[in-house]
Amino acid sequence: NAGVTQTPKFQVLKTGQSMTLQCAQDMNHEYMSWYRQDPGMGLRLIHYSVGAGITDQGEVPNGYNVSRSTTEDFPLRLLSAAPSQTSVYFCASSSDRSSTEKLFFGSGTQLSVL
Amino acid sequence: LAKTTQPISMDSYEGQEVNITCSHNNIATNDYITWYQQFPSQGPRFIIQGYKTKVTNEVASLFIPADRKSSTLSLPRVSLSDTAVYYCLVGDRGRAGGGADGLTFGKGTHLIIQP
Prior knowledge:
Number of strands of chain B: 9
Largest sheet of chain A: 7 strands, mixed
Order of helices and strands of chain B: EEEEEEEEE
Number of strands of chain A: 11
Structural class of chain B: mainly beta
Number of helices of chain A: 0
Number of helices of chain B: 0
Low-confidence stretches of chain B: none
Mean pLDDT of chain B: 91
Shape of chain A: globular
Strand content of chain B: 35-45%
Largest sheet of chain B: 5 strands, mixed
Order of helices and strands of chain A: EEEEEEEEEEE
Helix content of chain B: under 10%
Oligomer: heterodimer
């Protein structure tokens, strides 16, 4: 049982480049979300999805796009990378949107934008 | 919105019991208290959750007083591998109310266990 899988683990981009961070879960979870974590900071919510075809913005959505075409996958797209997007990105999933459900996190993608 | 306050860092030694207290003065009636653990280079992992009194599992205990304005995560007989950041979260009202999207992961408590 793989849980939540994120790829790649590391990525270096140049300013202005675009890329997609992949997230897949095999637990048939309805709720998925993306966070970023900066040094010494907590996790900040970027976007989330309550099911296939449904997405919404979190606390820091600017510069990022998401889509949810299947229950399993929730990719995060950086449209035009900026140095301010250098961070560690975590994907999470849970069985539903309730705040009392366990969140399962991936192992993260460390992104550097030069 | 129910916000939490917890110590930035704590030190302890192997074999000791560690108690991390979190304050949440504005907790709402329907809010639960949840703790996550994060090791370096990993995503957070659920530890324990409770609503009132005491909850215990194989990893930790959670003590919640009657007024629910604070909670204490207790780790028995810690080892070096318990060195991690511990987050206290209170079920918060997101924009649509009560969802995981409303949970706030603050800076957490950095627990350092020494030999």
